[in-house]
Specification:
Layout lengths: L14 H8 L2 E6 L5 H15 L4 E5 L27 E5 L13 H4 L4 E5 L10 E4 L6 H11 L6 H14 L10 H12 L4 H9 L4 H10 L4 E3 L3 E6 L1 H7 L9 H6 L6 E8 L3 E8 L6 H6 L3 E2 L3 E7 L2 H20 L2
Parallel strand pairs: 1-2, 1-3, 3-4, 4-5, 7-8
Antiparallel strand pairs: 6-7, 8-9, 9-11, 10-11
This protein binds guanosine-5'-monophosphate and manganese (II) ion.
Guanosine-5'-monophosphate binds next to strand 10 and strand 11.
Length: 332
């Protein structure tokens, strides 16, 4: 084994401190259909700013998913940006449309927008952009920011940050987890973040309706000769299972773990007129570029998009793009 030293820190743009310290009434907004990292990084930053004496409001179009609905403060999340804010911060958000309904350009386009994100596909839409694809979670960026600015982190902030870090790494099971990330986790636990409780509530607990939804979706599993494994979630399945939340609870990661597969896909029907595409891949195969070409984005190993069309229209088109992409990347 070779020994690799990973730096303890990720660089933070120094001008960010002054911009945040100059703000008095700050909205922190995260992406539509939020995941644990979206909610954790948003609430973590909001509370970090409040602990610095700021008025800070968490804003998200959609409610927190079941994985993190136990976090204190999730019920404080607003669906609109307060009209009197003087600074906007977006977090875990790779393009401006992912803010969804709350971001009214007429009303808020004149404000400074700080874009803090870890997606390689980020479109650099902010006034100031801190995009760090080496960060395993937007939460990891919140941690390094607090460290760089010498802002003390309360147990509450550490809990938000650790929760989001754990969700984006599926419980430290993604290929990007390294010594730096483990040192961050250790420090967050030392700050009081209850790692066992977070794991129990976030990973070892699913709504029964979700298990029923998996049972309905898995019989539709398809395996393509190119090493692409996929299934569908229809609106009828959601109604039958009772699981209406926009969240597959890790179904795509589960099918993508099949040996010999390069890419896993779940196609989720939305109101019969759009399809959400959720992509996972093995290290060495990048799905973020296909997602980006479809108007979405993400990370090399986890990406997604929402496209117009019915399942019958969208599935063959996306499979074709994925076949070409897999062939290019793995040869053959
Ligand atoms: P998931 O499959 O868990 O919904 O999403 C995986 C990754 O893809 C996440 O990092 C998420 O931010 C990104 N992603 C999913 N859907 C979209 C989308 O519609 N647009 C963009 N830009 N990114 C997406
Ligand atoms: Mn994230």
């Amino acid at each position: 084994m070779s020994h690799t030293h990973v730096s303890d820190t990720l660089p933070v743009p120094p001008e960010l401190k002054e911009i945040l310290e100059d703000g008095e009434n700050i909205a922190v907004i995260t992406h539509v259909a939020p995941d644990g990292d979206a909610i954790g990084s948003m609430l973590g930053l909001v509370h970090l700013l409040r602990e610095r004496g700021k008025v800070a409001t968490p804003v998200c179009q959609d409610p927190a998913p079941y994985q993190v609905n136990w976090l204190p403060g999730v019920h404080e999340i607003q669906h609109v940006i307060p009209p009197d804010v003087d600074l906007l911060v977006s977090i875990d958000l790779s393009d401006v449309d992912r803010m969804g309904e709350p971001y009214d350009r007429e009303a808020f386009g004149h404000l400074t927008l700080v874009n803090i994100d870890h997606h390689a596909t980020n479109t650099l839409f902010g006034t100031v952009n801190w995009v760090e694809p080496r960060a395993v979670a937007a939460c990891e960026m919140v941690y390094h920011m607090a460290q760089a600015f010498d802002w003390p982190m309360s147990t509450r902030v550490a809990t938000y940050v650790l929760t989001g870090l754990l969700t984006d790494t599926r419980g430290l099971r993604t290929a990007n987890v390294n010594a730096r990330v483990l040192r961050v986790v250790t420090h967050l636990v030392e700050l009081g973040a209850p790692i066992g409780e977070i794991t129990e509530l976030t990973f070892n607990r699913k709504p029964l309706s979700l298990i029923k939804l998996w049972a309905l979706a898995l019989p539709h599993l398809h395996v393509e000769p190119e090493g692409i494994i996929w299934t569908v979630i229809t609106e009828a399945m959601r109604r039958e299972s009772g699981h209406m939340e926009e969240n597959d609870g890790g179904l795509v990661s589960f099918i993508a773990s099949a040996e010999g597969m390069y890419v896993g896909v779940v196609f989720t029907e939305k109101e019969g007129t759009r399809v959400n595409i959720s992509l996972r891949s093995r290290p060495g195969v990048d799905v973020s570029q296909v997602a980006f070409a479809l108007g979405g984005g993400g990370h090399p190993q986890a990406a997604g998009a929402t496209v117009e069309g019915t399942l019958d229209e969208v599935i063959p088109r996306v499979l074709q793009l994925l076949r070409e992409s897999v062939r290019q990347q793995v040869g053959g």
